[in-house]
Design goal:
Neuraminidase; 4-stranded antiparallel beta sheet; mainly beta
């Protein structure tokens, strides 16, 4: 599955439940019904995600209980890879709106869209440093995907990695001294960590399985990631910053992908195809209290909790 999911991402963005342990809550209020955009509150706790419910991939915002939401990109191009700024006022994202995939930034309501990268290559996976002074991103401008840094206005791009493997999905550690990322440099996809200047890369998972899509909880440094080490499907796992204390969060035979931490670390939001298409759920890091947020016939993916 992960190969298919990655291929889909390469094509779409890269052309160029009330149980105390493991039960599922009743469906969230989304139920596939159109949301009312005119009264949406942009000031509160929000989850950004990708959806094709309007015919192409767009970035949406919704409340953490799934009761209200809005399309903030509303563009005929493909928009995805949403990344919140540390203060929650802006979202960096990838879009094909000017031909090839570039990184852009916009205000939380979708206004003031500004293009940050202008390379003919694919630029994806933006990630803000904890102090907001840098954005890490992945690009294939050197022939394969490497991780770069740039200023928040797109200036001063600096290459951090230089390996023949594919380095993608950067995620910052609190304090900004290190970056966690996905890489195939060991022959398969693993989760790695490096200093913020690209030095001292270390393979944290070092497993023959597929490991990727890391996200870091700022308060503790706990990493959530996906892996198929327990079988043919992908599940959510957590581990410490040194790769120890690996814990399996989900155990469903479907595919679970693209997790993000709630700010206080009490829940993870993720997407899964356990009901036939990709929907968004939340779960406690223990694996308890699974709650479904979306139930639209279109695919809802890549959720990211507002800081």
């Amino acid at each position: 599955m992960h190969a298919t999911r990655w291929a889909t991402y390469g094509m779409v963005i890269g052309i160029a439940l009330v149980s105390a342990s493991c039960g599922e809550s009743p469906l969230g209020p989304d139920q596939g019904i159109a949301w009312t955009d005119s009264t949406f509150d942009f000031s509160g706790e929000l989850i950004a995600f990708e959806s094709q419910r309007d015919g192409n991939r767009e970035i949406y915002l919704m409340t953490p209980d799934g009761t209200d939401g809005i399309n903030i990109t509303n563009n005929p191009a493909e928009d995805g890879d949403a990344a919140w700024s540390p203060d929650g006022s802006k979202i960096a994202f990838a879009s094909t709106r000017e031909g090839n995939t570039e990184v852009y930034v916009m205000d939380v309501d979708g206004s003031n869209v500004t293009r940050l990268t202008t390379d003919t290559a694919i630029d994806r996976f933006p990630s803000w440093s904890p102090d907001g002074s840098k954005i890490a991103f992945a690009t294939d401008r050197d022939g394969d995907f490497e991780i770069y840094l740039m200023d928040p206005d797109g200036s001063n791009p600096v290459r951090l990695t230089g390996d023949p493997g594919e380095d993608t999905e950067p995620a910052w550690v609190a304090g900004g001294s290190k970056i966690v990322f996905s890489s195939t440099r060991s022959g398969n996809s693993d989760v790695w960590i490096m200093n913020a200047d690209g030095s001292n890369p270390v393979d944290l998972t070092n497993d023959p399985s597929f490991d990727g899509s890391p996200t870091v909880l700022s308060s503790s440094g706990t990493i959530a990631f996906v892996s198929d080490r327990a079988g043919e499907n992908l599940d959510l796992y957590t581990m410490d910053l040194d790769g120890s204390n690996v814990y399996r969060v989900t155990t469903d035979p479907a595919e679970d992908f693209d997790s993000s931490w709630m700010g206080d670390g009490t829940r993870l939001v993720f997407d899964t195809n356990r009901n036939g298409n990709w929907d968004i759920y939340t779960v406690e890091p223990s694996g308890a209290y699974l709650v479904r947020l979306t139930s639209n016939p279109a695919d809802d993916e890549s959720p990211v909790w507002r800081p």
